[in-house]
Amino acid sequence: MKLRKEIEPKWSIAEKLYPEILKSILDYTDFCNENGDEENIEYKKLEELLHKFTGKDMSKFNLWEWWEGEGAEVLSFKIALPDPVIIENITKEELSEIISEHLEYSDEWMLNENIEVDFKTQFYPYLEDYYHNFLKINFKKTYDYQKIFGSQKDKDKKQFWLSNSEKIDRLWNNGTF
Fold it and tell me: Which residues pair with 152 in a beta bridge?
């Protein structure tokens, strides 16, 4: 099943913004390596610039220690990708597609030597935050990361994880646990 366009990540916007965001982050890093930024003056300038590009609150991102995370490229992609929006009348089939196909990511397809590695292919593995944010804003009453996606304990205190169909049911059925 293909998701409605409104649900899908806005790849074209992310691809357009990505090069300038990456350049800005790397320029800031170079500046800090040469000059330092103890007063965070340049950091604040970078936050303002990236906010201007995206409209996002940059306090959600760690712009100066990206090397401890997934790298400048992934950080730049996550900043460039527009946030998900609230969608009316999401179907259970669409929810199922998100849970089963987009949050159960497997990189086995990348073993295919014939696959062209374009922007979307390169960053597809990093959409988990996008889809969790989508679920959080569209299933406000039922979304609870730990109760749905985290490990659970049965009556004997044994750890287990919910199946995809159980996750879908919990989100769809008003969070009945």
Answer: 160
